[in-house]
Amino acid sequence: MLIGEILRAQNKYVEACSRVEEAEYLFLEIHEQNGATNCRFLLGYIYEAQGKLESAKSTWEEAISRYAELQDQVGVASCLLTLGKVYRTQGQYEAAYSAAEEAKSIYIKFRVLQGVANTLLLFGDIHFDRCQYSEAYSAAAEARAIYVKRGDKLGIALSLSSMGNIIFKQERYVEAQRCTEETKDEWVKLGNNVGIANCWRLFGDIYWMKGEYDEACCRLEEAKSLFAKHNNGLNSSLGIADCNSSLGKIFRLQGQYDNAIKLLEEARMTYSTLGSKEKDAAECTEEIALALQALGSREHAD
Q1: What's the pLDDT at 139?
Q2: Exposure class string for 272-298: b at 16+ Cβ within 10 A, else e
Q3: Residue 273 gets which letter from DSSP?
Q4: Cα 63 versus chain centre, distance
Q5: Under 8 Å CB-to-CB from 24, ≥6 apart: which residues?
Q6: How large is the angle between the packed helices 133-150 and 153-169, nearest 10 degrees?
Q7: Each residue of 18-35: b (16+ CB within 10 Å) or e?
């Protein structure tokens, strides 16, 4: 199973899946149910990274049943948390919140602070998607406080990233830039290139809002390049879509309508597969219509 985890971390998902399935079979052969269930849990992560969300859900649901039979409540909570993340990605916010609440209750009962912080981070993401930015910031800040207390560098970086995105949505661009600089420093320490790419993406959006289009495009292109180079599945695909969406909107404002339409179409195609990105897909559709209208007016004038 360890080899499978290493391969997953290296984004070699087909090989990782094969190794983990092999490990699960061997555990079952020797009647080691705990090991087999841990393999099932890991398989869910591999499916999620590949964008196979329904497979991930069914795998984690099966793992919940197995952990329950083993009376491993923390294992159940871990599955509920990951299910909640998938529900959130699919835009099923009530189901996501319910799963996170149940997971948090278990984590509190067994005093698993790491799990509590992780559920708070998910609550923040759900509030963020619903444009409830004050609630989102409070949840992310509370999660960060726990991560700092535990010295969890990854958790600190994730919570800071969430806080930066929330502040940006609140149009507090100077604070957002400062928070994103701090976030980038954390990702650099961890050597997490996808995290760094997310920071460049947000820098690009901040410069865009400040009217500095050339600087914005430079940062967004740099982010796209990092996402593509260090592809970790669904997260990188969404990162590239976010960059394309922002670049497309900037190009439309600059009168580069053909380029704008191309990038916005690419972003819309990615967004349209995920329930949580329906609003983003709709925005791309609206931007494409504006670009086509402007392009038609230009051609008519010529």
Answers
A1: 98
A2: eebebbeebbebbeebbebbeeebeee
A3: T
A4: 22
A5: 1, 35, 36, 39, 40, 43
A6: 160
A7: ebbeebbeebeeeeeeee
* Higher-scoring residue by pLDDT: 273, 75: 75
DSSP, collapsed to helix, strand or coil, labels residue 255 as: coil
**What is the predicted pLDDT for the residue at 12?**
78
* Residue of 55, 138, 132, 115 lying closest to 90 (CA atoms): 55
pLDDT in tens, 4-59: 565 556 677 888 899 999 999 999 999 999 999 999 999 999 999 888 999 999 99
Tens of pLDDT along 183-226?
A: 999 999 999 999 999 999 999 999 999 999 999 999 999 999 99
Query: Of 189, 182, 191, nearest to 164 (Cα)?
Result: 182
Q: Return all residues near 151 (Cβ < 8 A) that are at least 6 apart.
A: none
DSSP letter (8 states) at residue 122: H
Tokens of 232: 């970790």
Rg (CA), the chain: 21
Whole-angstrom distance, CA of residue 268 vs CA of residue 290: 15
The CA-based angle 214-289-273, given to 5 degrees, is 85
Rounded Cα distance, 105 and 205, in Å: 37
Residues 33/70, Cβ–Cβ less than 8 Å? yes
Element holding 89 (H helix, E strand): helix 73-89
User: Could you give the percent of the chain with pLDDT greater than 90?
Assistant: 87
Q: Give me the count of residues in the chain.
A: 302
Higher model confidence: residue 87 or residue 230?
87
Report CA 19 to chain centroid distance, whole Å.
25
Q: Among residues of the chain, what percentage have pLDDT more than 70?
A: 95
Query: Which pLDDT score is estimated for 232?
Result: 77
